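Why does residue order matter? Because the sequence determines the fold. Keep that principle in mind as you read this record.
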Amino acid sequence: MEVAIEAGADDVVSYEDGSVDVLTSPAAFQEVKQAMTAAGLEPEAAEVTQRAGSSTTLGFEDAQKMVKLLEMLEDLDDTQNVYSNADISDDILAKL
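Structure:
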């Protein structure tokens, strides 16, 4: 975390599985990536992408619709990536 922040990252998000997301502006992306690599922290994936500034919590019915929409979008041949700001609880996902 310290290496990323010192290199110009905006935030570092840690997950239970030990993985981390390093969030930075597109302008600082290369510098932060190079600093992480130089520190021996080779990323599994590194890309510039857009992230939603907020998320929307969905109930069961809306979550069903959202999952169906996302699946339909992913099935399109011209679609490369699908992103969403939907926050669907683990309980609801298990029911789907």
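The chain is about 40% helix and 10% strand.
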